[in-house]
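Rather than argue in generalities, we have chosen a single entry, letters for residues, whole numbers for local backbone shapes, without further comment.
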Amino acid sequence: MQKVVIELTMSLDGFIAGPNISVSEPMGNKGQRLHEWFFNSKTETDEALLTEIVENSGAVITGARTYTTAIDDAWGGQSPFIVPPFVVCHHPPAKKVDGFSYVQGIKEALEHARKSAGEKNIWIMGGANIIQQYLQLKLFDEMHIHIAPVLFTEGTRLFDLIGKDRIELNKLKTIDTPAATHIYYEVLK
């Protein structure tokens, strides 16, 4: 059964990117530490989690800022995804890359992603503004948060602008590896 899954890494104090995000530093000047669990410090367990994310996803939704800052440096000028990626943006980006679709809003992105994903999950990977909109409207089924063992103290916070309505979650599982604590929640509807 298809699910909408918010999947991302954040610091222990709730930041998904460090300060000073730019094309030359897509995760900001503190961001490198966030993703050690799937780069330099990856264990067999981390690798299995990454494989699960990819194998269960049928489409990916990301924001324009994430796309713009990552497309050249982090993604090498091409899509890193093996499934259709949708970029939510008010205006098409200056640099368009084959394989990406550019859509106007989160509902439109979700509609296209549902059609593309078939029975597989839709992976919402960010950035903060896009995820906050999905949280506000409760348009997700699960949230998988990978918590890096670092305190940023500044940067882009995930849970700042999510509205005032309570979102009830049920913890599905927790997996600890040296470079992250992986927590999986489902939304109680």
About this structure: The first strand starts at residue 4 and ends at 11. Residues 37 and 179 are 5 Å apart (CA to CA).
